[in-house]
C-alpha cells in the first residue's frame, strides 16, 4: 500500500518535531527516513503506526485519510530499536502473540510462528526465551512478530542500532531480502547514512521536521539538493572556487557544473573524497599530513596552503602516499554541488 504524509505537523511544547512533512512512500517500496537526531523521524513513523497524532496535516494510506484511525485498527507491523520482546514468552509465543490476541487456534498459531521463524532464519529457536538469544536473533524474532499479522506496511525504527557492526550488515541485507520477497511497503528509520543508502529504494533526508530531499540512494549521494544533504550523506570537502556561467574554476582546473547554481561568483565547491586525485610529485604544492588505512581504501588528509582536503585512494596506494609526501591534487569527478560561500575563503 502507499503511505502519504501530507503537511504533517507535530509539536511537543516548544519543540517542533514535524514541521509540515510531505512525502509519499509507494507500494512495495523501502523508504529510508534519514536525518540527524531530533529531526522527527521517529515521530513521523509513530504517526503511521497511530501511536502519535499530528497537530495538523494527515497520513493517507492508499489515498484514504487514516489520521484518526486508532492504532489497533491500522495495518502496520513495527520493530523498535530496543528488542522489546516479552521476556516471559519464548520466541514462538512472542511471534504468535498478535495471533493469540486475535484468538487464532493454538495449532494454527504455532504453525504460523514456525513458518515465520523459518523466514527470519531461526527455525530451531522456537523454544528459546529472549535472554537465551543474541541481540541479532532477538531482532529477527521481533521482525517475525511484526510480520505475523501480515501487515501491509512495515515500520522499522532504528532496528539495527543496538547491534554490532557485522550483525548489523547481515541483518540489514536480510531485511531487504525479506522485504523484496514479501513486496511489503516499508519505512526504515535510521540516522546511519550508509545503512540508508545500502538498504533503501529511496532515501528521504529530513531536517528539522521537514523533507530536505528524497530520491534513490545514488541520486541523494551524487546529486544532493542542498549542502545539508551533501554533508549528511557521506563525507564532503569544501573547496573555494570561482563560478562563471556553467563552469567553475577549482583547484586550478575548469570543471563543468549543472543543477541549481548560486548567483555569486565566489563559491563553495563540494567534492567527495573519492573525487580528489592525489599524485606524488616533488614539485607538488600540497603535502599529505595524515593517512588512515581502512582496508580497501585509505583516507588521506592533504594540506594545500591553508586548505585541508580529504582524498580516498585505493588501500594499496597508502604506502607510497605516506604522510610528508609532496603531491599534486586534482579533481577527477564533477563537483556534487556548488553553493554560495558561507565563510571567507582560505587563501590558497
Ligand atoms: P532520534 O534519532 O534521536 O530518535 P528522531 O529524528 O527520531 O531522533 P524524534 O524522536 O521524532 O526525532 O523527535 C523529534 C523532536 O521531538 C526531538 O526534539 C524530541 O526531543 C521531541 N519529542 C519527540 N517525542 C516527544 C515527546 N513525547 N515529548 C516531548 N518531546 C518529544
Automatic annotation (TrEMBL):
Residues covered by the ABC transporter domain: 3-233
UniProt KW keywords: ATP-binding, Nucleotide-binding, Transport
Pfam families linked to this entry: ABC_tran (PF00005), TOBE_2 (PF08402)
Cross-referenced InterPro entries: AAA+_ATPase, ABC_SmlMolc_Importer, ABC_transporter-like_ATP-bd, ABC_transporter-like_CS, Mo/tungstate-bd_C_term_dom, P-loop_NTPase, Transp-assoc_OB_typ2
Gene Ontology molecular function terms on file: ATP binding
Protease is among the record's keywords: no
UniProt cross-references to PANTHER family, sorted A to Z: SPERMIDINE/PUTRESCINE IMPORT ATP-BINDING PROTEIN POTA (PTHR42781), SPERMIDINE_PUTRESCINE IMPORT ATP-BINDING PROTEIN POTA (PTHR42781:SF4)
Protein name: ABC transporter ATP-binding protein
Lineage: Bacteria, Bacillati, Actinomycetota, Actinomycetes, Streptosporangiales
